[in-house]
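User: I'm curious what two different proteins look like when written out as structure tokens. Can you demonstrate?

Assistant: Sure. I'll show them one after the other, since each token string lines up with its own sequence. Here's the first protein:
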Amino acid sequence: MRFRLWDLRSLFPQNPFPQYLDRDNSDWQLTQALIRAIRDESESHGARFLLVLLPQREYLNGMYDPVIYQSLEQFAQRADIDYINLMPLMRSHRWGDVFYPEDGHFKPLGARIAAELIYRKLQNTDDR
């Protein structure tokens, strides 16, 4: 069996954003402040804010450690921000079924899956 570098690198996932592990990191603090500001601005205009975590190919195929998504989820929970992490759902489908191979944009199936999940989340939070 012939391996490509891509296959071998996925055996040892990289963390391209180590700052998300350090709560005191200024880049991570800025990211959190920006998300809060966008939420506050949205809500000040009467809109509901929903943080949607959309995984990239490198996270789905195991090349990158998904710690960034875990950090964002923990932040959203602490900040009482509604969120959806699409990582688990997207991992349950083959990449080529939901994403275009050239650039990682959704194919129609991927867009439908994401839209249905977002719709369900919004319907459930309306009941609060």
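Here's a second, unrelated protein for contrast:
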Amino acid sequence: MLNYVALGIFASVLAAGQVFFKYSASALKNKPVADGFLELAQSPAFYAGVTLYGAATLLWVWILSRVPLSQAYPWVALAMAAVPILAVIVFRERFDSSYWLGVGLVVLGVFITQRASQGG
């Protein structure tokens, strides 16, 4: 059970990091490259994203010490499902129904791979 909790936290941290990266990307918008990167270097959101990704990397290595890679890796796809949900909530982005169908299929695929890896 602890492995599944850790995998869920890992996917959540990846998704949260993407939100911080998107937020900090506004520093680059409509600016010359050098100016944008200078502003990015001063963005707390950018450092929050980097910190989350660093923590996720450490957690990932710990997870891989306990879980086979083939079982753990599909959980990365759950971050792919969480990011658009966060994009709707935080950035008011819109997706059509075919996009959500694809996200649903990804989540279903993770469920299937996890059941298969348990032999059931």
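A detail about the second structure: The first helix runs from residue 2 to 25.
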